[in-house]
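Protein modeling request. Please complete all fields; requests missing the sequence field cannot be processed.
Requester role: graduate student
Desired output: 3D structure, token encoding
Chains: 1
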Amino acid sequence: MAGSKTGLRQAIPSLRHIVMRFSPYVRKERGLVGWSMGALGAVVFLRMLEPWPLKLVLDRVIVAVPTGGQTGIALVDRMDPLSLLTWCAGGLVLIIGLRALAEYSQTVGFALVGNRVLTRVRSDLYNHLQRLSLSFYNTARAGDLLVRVTSDVNLLKEVTVTAALPLVASFMLLVGMLGLMLWMNWQLTLLVMLPLPFLGLRVARLNGRLRDAARLQRRREGAMAATAAESITSMKAVHALSLQESFSQRFGRQNDKGLLEGAQAAKLAAGLERTVDVFVTFATAIALWQGARLVMAGTLSPGDLVLFLTYLKSAVRPARDFAKYTTRLTRAAAAGDRVLELFDRLPEVRDQPGACPAAPFRGQLRFEDVYFDYEPGRPGLVGIDFEVAPGQFVALAGPSGAGKTTIANLLLRLYDPGRGCVRIDGQDIRGFTVDSVRAQISVVLQDPFLFAATVGENIALGRPDATPEQIKAAARLAHVDEFVQGLPDGYDTLVGERGVTFSRGQCQRISIARATLRDAPILLLDEPTTGLDNTSESAVVDALQQLRGGRTTIVITHELQLAAAADLILYVEGGRIVERGSHAELLELNGRYAQQYALETVDIKQGVAAPDVHVVPG
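Delivered output (618 residues):
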């Protein structure tokens, strides 16, 4: 019992926090909300009015009793029984018809409000996810995020509109009906409410357990989606490594647990609603037993008893709705917590107070004693210090995992240094807006990511306002035009998701065309020739030569034949720059770079690898 009370106490602040957080979205629809609430109020009033024709017919037409003989309404009291019957029948039709119209209006109104709120919340959440730093995505699972953006946001509508607002109506109806029942016979009303404390205790206990079950269920659904997304997006590797059975077993275990948790939640929800049904049964039995005795004693008319029982049924309906909507709100609260968790997460890399857009860069770069850790106890960079002149060609060389890509990530402000400073043209890049820094850096990544769009659209991502002529000009410089001309739809050919319909070399050249079209003063190349055959590598390197002209260029590579053409080579190991200088200077130093270059040259001479690299210095 104590645990359930704790769950209930936790649910109320959570729901309050969710409602407060998303109320601005609802306020934007206040006109439609006002109309829907007005229709809802009309429904409550008409429900309270609905049983009166039946009371009049019972007391004035079927059984003429003194207690029901006079209503105090002169027009009604003067009517003969047949006329009153006709008016009551017509009035009942009118009341029910108006109630149906009001219910239709409030249902449609609340649905529109809910859908509009949901659309805005989902859009804002997606935009917020786009701004979160890479450190968040290093640990987040894509499938779980998809569930939060789609399914969990859907459930938020329950909190803000489709469950919360009807609960207001149910409360209004409950208060109205209880008020009329007290006015009619307060002693009978209090007698009927005797089982109410037991109902409250039972609902509180079940609500806490239901909230815990709902949270487990939402987490399980997120885990299942993450497993499915992981296997689907890596299907080539799954098939190649025969991992189908392993993923099926992992998904099956989570699915089975989800079944048990879903069944438990369904049992609790059904128990909550059946508890209300039991209360209704006892309350109705008490009202019927005592009310019939009052009718027999002549202190209550048959019409009054029917009216009282009808109000009791109508008053209990909000209680049943409360049980139903409480179940939905409990599930929605669990989903809302997951959505708010994302909204409350701030990007680690964001515009600083007073940040201004960067002026056009000349391309002078400076790393000043930069330290960076991906996580405590895992150093990424230690004391990185170097300077690059405008237009200079710099190679970051060294083994995998040495910290080369981390340097590039700091230049792009995908991360900020833990200590030290990164400057462009003498200015700390944290003083600029993030977008204005990235807009002036062209990037060719090791994994040439293409999107599910046309070839032309993928190239134009570097500059959305580019004309078709500019797109084709960039494609020609990157040697994309050579293979696009042979495609059935040319530049309108659709690219498969992640570029699966093209070879790696073709994808890399499209990526280079994208960078060419961007025409930024700083060019960043991350392992641009890794994994390419000799022909593709030669075409890519030639395209890079076209792209490099006049730009400050940083190339990240472990292929020293490519690094040899650079004006300045920085050899990185263990997050430190251990050697620096030109190719000739580093060979003369006879250190780590010279040893690795000698090994690579021997391999080439022996035919282990023979990259056809044509890089012209400067």
